[in-house]
Each structure stands twice: as structure tokens, then as C-alpha cells.
């Protein structure tokens, strides 16, 4: 385990060495941002809308007492969405979509000698392949989480309109009441950390792939599993430290 | 000139290279031949720095490449071109982008100059007009030729070629050999080719190093190979009846 941790840290160190030509690396960063951000927007939108809707209906069901104001469903759905569902669930989904893509892409480049070709040319392969993905992860995951929060809350409102369990006016009143900016800051910190975890762990798994197609698949699986575990661990640590 | 001195390479318990020393002459086709598992590709990877030798040194024009760190190696690496066994073209880039990739990173040429160079390299390997194709749209022979075009794009002093004929039909194989030979002579490149193709050995083997069980077993030219009494070399080169018949005519 310590051997792997050491290799992981050394790989990160190599990844952030001075680039040979900034312009070429910048183009890679932009390409990765589009791949991570725009490429994941569809799936994030869908899961956020459904999770927001389901959360609101469940909260309304559990707080059906006449002593509890109906607007509380909006407040609980908002805080759950901001603090947990949007950053964590979105990141777990992104680990599957983006992480497996990173690990298999870099793994395939390794087994088809494309990484060797980069090194022969004198290119810092970790810098060229991994750094842009980490930067894209750390910048685009927070943006996706912001979109997810907005869509999750919208999903809750749609559920209110469709089901009638809570009136839309009560829901909106609940969303507005007692809002604390700290919850959004926590969500963004989580998103940045989760973005780093997904890109770096999956890139590490891909970079040290050896063998053939079978091993590329195994690297992708390992990358996703380790990322998910680390996301949940980091979620606990950040929550404990910031709240 | 490239020189390897007393190279050893071990993977775990497996000692693949056992003290190989050789000199690879400038402006010539230097062939490393040997059976499967003899250590040919490992030696090539030790020379280009993809593997660090367990013991021994590699010199490029008397500069000790083995003792250099990554940054110190960059100037020599920009003088190296390499054609990989499976071409190792970047899947996400077109043919033109593959060839221009090292130019983008290591030169200050304008886009037009880089494009001109890419077109020249493509013409040189008889693939003019194939600029916008992706590697997945190319045949095996075309991929090899694009790999060669990328390798020569930086006008290298050293060209390394790993199994240039693997997976190719005999005719395409000969075309690739002829192309490598022409480029070596034209630009006076020090070319090191790992192969077990006997057409290449007899056709372009200016200087041949034969490896057997991780050791250098024989060294000479293609003219000398037919007359050697080295038992292992003879059983490797003249293994087929066709080659035995050819030897009798020599």
C-alpha cells in the first residue's frame, strides 16, 4: 500500500513539472474541460432532477404531521441537495463516467506504446496526459455541482407541482427560509476535492497499466472503485471539518 | 555513433540481458537480431531510455545517456526518432497532427512551416494527401509509414525501429525496409533495427548484432553472415529450407 502511495505521489509530482510548451498543454486542458464538463452535463442533469424530485416527495411523506409546516420539505430538500446529493452523488456518477474514461484512455495508450512514443520524443508524459485531466476535473466538477444543485431544487419543485404533496408556494418558501452560504461553500470544497480524486486516481491506474485489453479493463474498474471509496472518505472528512 | 557497454537488465529474478557491449555505426543500418525472448527489444528500450539498465552504460556520441536525468536527456531525445512495432500513432490525432506533434512541442516554427514539413514527410513515405485520416482508417503498412514520417519529422540523427515488418505482407515489408534504408543513407542517420525478418537481414543489414539467451553471440555484416560457422546463428538465420537453399547458392 505504501509503495502504491509513493508511486502515486511521485506521479503527481511529475504531472505538475514545467510544461515543454504552455500553449500545447493549454489546448489539452481546454479539450479535457469540454470532455469532462459538457460531456457530463446530460447525465448530471438527469440524475439531479430525479434525485431532487424523489427527495422532496420522501421528505413530504415523512413530515406529514399537522404540527410540522409543509414548507420544511423545501428547506430539507435544499440542504440535502446542496450538502450531499449534488456533490457526492454527482461525483460518484462522474467517477463512473469520467474516471473510467480517463483510466481506459491512458491505459490503452500505455499498452499500445503511445506513452513510450511520448517519452521517446522527450515529452513529460505524466504532465501532458495527467495534469490537464486533473485541472479539468478540479474546475469542471464544481461547475457541474452548481448546475446539479440548481437542477435538484428545480426537480423538487416539479415534484411538488406534479404530485401535490407540498404546494409549490410552500416548497419555494422553504427553499428560501434559513439559507446559509456555508452549505454552498462546503459543496464547492467537496466538488474540487472530488474532482481531484477522480482524475488523479483514475489517471494513476491507467498510467501503470501493463499487459493488454484485459488489464485496461481492470485498471478502469480499479480506478472507479478506489475513486468512489476515496470520495466517500473525503466526504466524511470535509463534512466533519467544515460543519 | 551509439555505444552500449556491458548492459545488464533484470526483471525480478529474470536476467534478460547479460553484459552486452556493441557499437552502432553512424549512417548505417544496424540490425539487432535473435530469436523470441533473446532480449532484442529490451536492449533497444535500454538504449532509448525506456528501460534503465540494471548495470552498464549507453553512449550517444560519447555522451553518457544512462547517467542523465529526464531534463538532461531532452536534447538527445529530440534527435531520436522511433518506429514502434505497432506504430504507436496517437489515436485521437489525424495523420498530419501526429507528424506535427513533436514540431509543436519542440520547435518555434510557424503553422505553415510545420504543415510544410508534415507534407514533405508524408510525401517522403509516399502518403501524400492522407493528412486528414485518423490512424483507425489506415492499413498496417500505412500506419508504419506514418510512424516513419513522424519519426523523421524532427530530422533525427538516430532512428530506432522495433520489428518494422511484423504483421506486414512480404511486398509491403520490403517497401518498408527500402524506405528505412533510403532515409538512413540520405540523411546519414544512425539506424538501429530490431528484427527477425531474414529479408531485412540479408537486404539491409550493414551491421548485425546477433543475440542469443541475453548475450551477444555474433557481430558482422550481411555479407559475412552466410559464411559464418557460428552454430546458433546458422540455426536461427537458416532455419527454413528456403534459406538453406539460398545459402548454398551464395
Class from helix and strand fractions of chain A: mainly alpha
Regarding quaternary structure, what we see is heterodimer
* Total strand segments of chain B: 10
CATH superfamily of the largest domain in chain B: P-loop containing nucleotide triphosphate hydrolases
The percent range for strand residues of chain B is 15-25%
Radius of gyration of chain B: 18 Å
CATH architectural name of the largest domain in chain B: 3-Layer(aba) Sandwich
Residue-averaged pLDDT of chain A = 95
Along the chain, the helix and strand elements of chain A come as HHHHHHHHH
Portion of residues in helices of chain A? Answer: over 70%
Query: What is the overall silhouette of chain B?
Result: globular
Stretches of chain B where pLDDT is under 50 for at least 5 consecutive residues are: none
Shape assignment of chain A: elongated
Order of helices and strands of chain B: EEEHEEHEHHHEHEHEEHHH
What is the highest CATH level, the class of the largest domain in chain B?
Answer: Alpha Beta
How many distinct domains of chain B? 2
If you had to describe this structure to a student in words, what would you say it looks like?
- Chain A is mostly helical.
- Chain A is built from nine helices and no strands.
- In chain A, helix 2 (22-62) runs parallel beside helix 6 (131-163) and helix 8 (181-207) runs antiparallel to helix 9.
- The two termini of chain A are 31 Å apart.
- With 250 residues, chain B is an alpha/beta fold.
- Chain B has two domains: 2-79 and 157-249, 3-Layer(aba) Sandwich (Rossmann fold), CATH 3.40.50.300; 88-155, no CATH class.
- In chain B, the strands form two sheets. In chain B, strands 6-7-8-3-9-10 form a six-stranded mixed sheet, with helices on both faces. Chain B has a four-stranded antiparallel sheet with strand order 2-1-4-5, covered by helices on one side.
- In chain B, strand 4 (55-60) and strand 5 form a beta hairpin.
- In chain B, helix 4 (111-124) crosses helix 5 (140-152), helix 5 (140-152) runs parallel beside helix 6 (170-187) and helix 6 packs parallel to helix 7 (198-204).
- The radius of gyration of chain B is 18 Å and the shape is globular.
- Chain B starts with a strand and ends with a helix.
- Chains A and B meet through helix 4 of A and helix 2 and helix 3 of B.
